[in-house]
């Protein structure tokens, strides 16, 4: 297995190669095949640490740093040893010192990426040639959108995105015509093709059981299946809630669940059907929840007047508990595994279904982002290639015998 993990303390990234069963927490445990620092350009350090890592179609690794640098690196070939993760291009985005990147997304329809910041600055960066000569294109958001903490592109319709943040409720935006593709960058007026239109604005939920206003602070947004005009969306909040919206059924969420007291940091789908979620929080939660199965007594509130109040929540299918402590910021689900990392400086890999720990590697650095570059053990890959080569050779000899 191969992973690329941000090293927050140094500002670099570490490539980790290991096999299933690796465990550095045990003296006699299996050790990683290699842990090597890469991606040390253009600048590194705590103030320029990597916030996002993006695998762009296995062509490039793209990083977004705290200081506004967005960099494009090569993805090395399997046996390549020299010039691994070579820097191809760096863009320095003009942001204020206190600003922070909140999202790095790909737009395959436009052969581009999109990077967004808390200040509501948002840029498209085309990747249409090896020289990357087109400078970042700033997309102006409506002035009433402020304090963003979450932004995601609809994977079904990449001209649609959703945003939210601190006292910024969910909005769905269209920012280019769905008929456009990357050929627009061959025209001189391509910047005029990006115009933001607000398609949906959510409203806050009703007051709580004490008749107090519920604060808004969206931390993650995911699109469920929908259409070009109707959207099903899930959000998580810094107050431990997840909410489900159906835009054809009004501006308030159709479901509002309280999951935990701590802020939800990351939210990912756990399966292709989008019926299960992985949630992490600022404490030690890494849990898998069902959107189809509801636990009627999932969360308990206590009211001085009414006593204990039980609130339905998505059913907890299980927790990933590899000894993790503290907040989990880096998470990726790929095929049948999930990799996570955070403040406790461990990279942990789990089987997605059984939740068994597959690998546990101490890296000595805090982690805010990671990529799974290969989910198979290197030894397994070598064995498969050898068997394939042997099968090919046998087939050639059999063919030669027939020709005789």
UniProtKB/TrEMBL annotation:
It comes from the Eukaryota. Signal peptide: none annotated. InterPro entries: WD40/YVTN_repeat-like_dom_sf, WD40_repeat_dom_sf, WDR74/Nsa1. Residues 379-404 are annotated as: Disordered. One of its GO terms (biological process) is ribosomal large subunit biogenesis. One of its GO terms (cellular component) is preribosome, large subunit precursor. Component of the pre-66S ribosomal particle. Involved in the biogenesis of the 60S ribosomal subunit. Belongs to the NSA1 family. This is Ribosome biogenesis protein NSA1. It comes from Candida verbasci.
């Amino acid at each position: 297995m191969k992973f690329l993990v941000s090293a927050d303390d140094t500002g670099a990234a570490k490539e980790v190669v290991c096999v299933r069963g690796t465990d550095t927490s045990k003296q006699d445990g299996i050790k990683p095949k290699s842990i090597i620092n890469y991606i040390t350009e253009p600048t590194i350090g705590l103030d320029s640490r990597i916030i996002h890592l993006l695998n762009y179609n296995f062509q490039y690794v793209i990083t977004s740093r705290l200081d506004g640098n967005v960099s494009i690196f090569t993805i090395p070939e399997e046996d390549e040893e020299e010039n691994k993760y070579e820097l191809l291009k760096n863009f320095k985005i003009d942001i204020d010192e206190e600003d922070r990147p909140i999202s790095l997304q790909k737009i395959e329809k436009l052969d581009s990426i999109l990077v967004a910041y808390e200040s509501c600055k948002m840029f498209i960066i085309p990747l249409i040639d090896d020289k990357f000569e087109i400078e970042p294109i700033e997309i102006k958001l409506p002035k009433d959108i402020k304090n963003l903490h979450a932004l995601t592109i609809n994977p079904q319709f990449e001209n649609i995105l959703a945003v939210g943040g601190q006292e910024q409720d969910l909005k769905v935006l269209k920012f280019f015509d769905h008929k456009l593709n990357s050929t627009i960058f061959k025209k001189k007026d391509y910047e005029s093709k990006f115009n933001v239109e607000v398609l949906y604005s959510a409203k806050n939920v009703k007051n709580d059981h004490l008749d107090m206003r519920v604060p808004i602070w969206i931390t993650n947004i995911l699109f469920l299946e929908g259409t070009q005009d109707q959207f099903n969306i899930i959000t998580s909040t810094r107050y431990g809630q997840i909410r489900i919206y159906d835009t054809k059924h009004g501006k308030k969420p159709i479901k509002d669940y309280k999951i935990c007291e701590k802020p939800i940091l990351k939210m990912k789908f756990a399966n292709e059907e989008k019926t299960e979620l992985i949630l992490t929080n600022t404490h030690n939660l890494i849990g898998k929840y069902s959107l189809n199965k509801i636990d009627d007594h999932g969360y308990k509130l206590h009211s001085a007047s009414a006593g204990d109040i039980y609130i339905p929540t998505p059913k907890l299918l299980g927790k990933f508990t590899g000894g993790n402590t503290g907040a989990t910021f880096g998470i990726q689900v790929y095929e049948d595994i999930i990799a996570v990392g955070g403040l406790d400086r461990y990279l942990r890999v789990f089987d997605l279904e059984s939740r068994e720990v597959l690998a546990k590697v101490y890296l000595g650095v805090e982690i805010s982002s990671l990529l799974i570059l290969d989910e198979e053990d290197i030894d397994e890959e070598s064995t498969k290639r050898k068997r394939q080569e042997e099968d090919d050779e046998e087939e050639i000899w059999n063919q030669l015998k027939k020709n005789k």
